[in-house]
């Protein structure tokens, strides 16, 4: 929103008995006697795991730098909500920027409504985590709406600092806090949050199974989990993968936005089922976000947009160049804007 990192969207990955990096370094250093003799196939597996680990590090670095560069530009033009807006299907795309910002707020409300969150005082979430929080727009909105304590995590130091500053300016410093952390290894104990919120961060996750398991781990019994994310289309019966031209288009987008391989909404549903979560449901909101990317392109082509983009850096420029590819993906029904929600059993 995660130079070309091509980490597979494998749903279930085997666990190595040793840390891959430790095992590999010790072997290269000549300490083979400390470990069982490896076959050619096991040696190749260790080397592959080492490579994947390095790619994951590069991916996180690229994501952090992209958002360090681009978040200030985005805030200057679009405000503090760094996600799509929700529109009536077929709505005219030529609307005012203020209307687009209202559509971003509507996206939050529509997601809460789809998940069945109640506004009744006794049922409001009291503790919320915003996974991939950007500069804290959703965190502050949810904190105000529910009077909740909200924690946000991001890979970008700039985003965490800016989110904290904006929250303090709005009198929310004691209610909302942010930190740099990895969504695949969240810095929270088990069963901490009544609402686990992920608005357009799942697309950056190289290991979707680990991502979903972490969302479930930090969710308290009875908590709601909301995932809003970019996906590719569900595969048709008999298909084992996307078509070559579809893979090529997504590959170009991955290079620009620091994305690993994509997965489908059906993959997310299967992951949630494997964790025995309940009330799982999903929807394709692609028609409801259709005006968003054309609007972003129009603002990028204004004088303010062009000058801000040039100041922000090369990673932001590459992202801007990929925006027409996103529109193409939506028009071809390849890219899907999905919401997936569930509850953790009591």
UniProtKB/TrEMBL annotation:
GO terms for molecular function: S-adenosylmethionine-dependent methyltransferase activity; tocopherol C-methyltransferase activity. Residues 128-137 are annotated as: SAM motif I. It holds the Pfam family Methyltransf_11. Gene3D superfamilies: Vaccinia Virus protein VP39. The keyword Transmembrane helix does not apply. Keywords: Methyltransferase, S-adenosyl-L-methionine, Transferase. SUPFAM superfamilies: S-adenosyl-L-methionine-dependent methyltransferases. Residues 191-199 are annotated as: SAM motif II. Residues 218-227 are annotated as: SAM motif III. Residues 129-227 form the Methyltransferase type domain. GO terms for biological process: methylation; vitamin E biosynthetic process. PANTHER family: MAGNESIUM PROTOPORPHYRIN IX METHYLTRANSFERASE, CHLOROPLASTIC-RELATED, METHYLTRANSFERASE. Belongs to the class I-like SAM-binding methyltransferase superfamily. gTMT family. This is Methyltransferase type 11 domain-containing protein. It comes from Kalanchoe fedtschenkoi.
């Amino acid at each position: 929103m995660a130079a070309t990192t091509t980490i597979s969207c494998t749903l279930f990955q085997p666990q190595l008995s040793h840390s891959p990096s430790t095992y590999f370094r010790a072997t290269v250093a000549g300490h083979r006697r400390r470990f069982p003799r490896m076959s050619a196939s096991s040696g190749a597996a260790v080397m592959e795991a080492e490579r994947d680990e390095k790619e994951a590090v590069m991916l996180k670095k690229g994501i952090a730098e992209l958002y360090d560069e681009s978040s200030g530009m985005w805030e200057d033009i679009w405000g503090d909500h760094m996600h799509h807006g929700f529109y009536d299907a077929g709505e005219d795309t030529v609307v005012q920027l203020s209307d687009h910002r209202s559509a971003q707020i509507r996206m939050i409300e529509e997601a809460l409504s789809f998940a069945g969150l109640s506004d009744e005082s006794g049922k409001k979430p009291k503790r919320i985590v915003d996974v991939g929080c950007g500069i804290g727009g959703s965190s502050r909105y949810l904190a105000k709406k529910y009077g909740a304590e909200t924690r946000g995590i991001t890979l970008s130091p700039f985003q965490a600092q800016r989110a904290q500053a904006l929250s303090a300016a709005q009198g929310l410093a004691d209610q909302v806090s942010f930190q740099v952390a990895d969504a695949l290894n969240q810095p929270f104990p088990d069963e901490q949050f009544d609402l686990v919120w992920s608005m357009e961060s799942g697309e950056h996750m190289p290991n979707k199974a680990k991502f979903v398991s972490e969302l479930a781990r930090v969710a308290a019994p009875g908590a709601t989990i909301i995932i809003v994310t970019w996906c590719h289309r569900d595969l048709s019966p008999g298909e084992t993968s996307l078509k070559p031209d579809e893979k090529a288009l997504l590959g170009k987008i991955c290079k620009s936005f620091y994305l690993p391989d994509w997965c489908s909404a059906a993959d997310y549903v299967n992951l949630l089922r494997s964790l025995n979560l309940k009330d799982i449901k999903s929807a394709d909101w692609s028609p409801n976000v259709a005006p968003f990317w054309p609007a972003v392109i129009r603002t990028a082509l204004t004088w303010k947009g062009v000058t801000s983009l040039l100041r922000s850096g090369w990673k932001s420029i590459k992202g801007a160049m990929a925006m027409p590819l996103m529109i193409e993906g939506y028009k071809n029904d390849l890219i899907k804007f999905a919401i997936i929600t569930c509850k953790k059993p009591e």
